[in-house]
Amino acid sequence: MKLTMQSFATRLLLSSLLALALLCGVHGQSRSFAVVISPKNPLSSLSLGELRKIFSGEKRSWPDGTHVKLFARAPGTLERTALLKLLGKSEMEYKQYWTAKVYQGEADAEPMVLPSVGMQKEALKAYPGGVALFNAADVKPDMKVLKIDGKLPEDSGYPLNQ
Q1: 3-state secondary structure 108-135
Q2: pLDDT tens-digit profile of 124-143?
Q3: 11, 33, 80, 148: which has the fewest Cβ within 10 Å?
Q4: Residue 26 contacts by C-beta under 8 Å, 6 or more apart in sequence?
């Protein structure tokens, strides 16, 4: 009986670990994040450095002169985590950074936080200078994805793969 109970506990533990690994995405699949812009924006590619400057508010207009409008997902989302990793900041550092930029007059406002992928998609249609990070799995055919360092999310060596 003792061996059976130990065998049951081992199987339960292994099953739980497997389920946790699948839920957390630890089963070998990487996540990619696409940089999506307004379909009205003529741009097709950026370097990773340029992308950092855009999402940090250092670069405030596109090459055609259109004002950049940053859209971000809420704290705790995969897209927000990818944004923080791109900028090398914690959530607290990110909030403090944008508060300082607004206070010092270096930005009109912090990036607009949108609670859903659908709202981000609609905002990009409404704002010609809009840009947002999307989980690549959420990108639809009618969305305009920028190449980063000459690569798309499905390409090997894409810099926003995690």
Answers
A1: CCCCEEECCHHHHHHHHHHCCCEEEEEE
A2: 999 999 999 999 999 999 99
A3: 11
A4: 20
Angstrom distance (rounded) from CA 145 to CA 139 = 8
Distance CA 118, CA 107 (A): 26
Q: Residue 25 — left, alpha, or beta (φ > 0 → left; ψ -120 to 50 → alpha)?
A: left
Whose CA is closest to 158, among 24, 32, 46, 74? 32
Helix (H, G, I), strand (E, B) or coil at 160: coil
At 58 the three-state DSSP class reads coil
- For the whole prediction, is pTM greater than 0.85? no
The answer to whether the beta carbons of residues 150 and 21 sit under 8 Å apart is: no
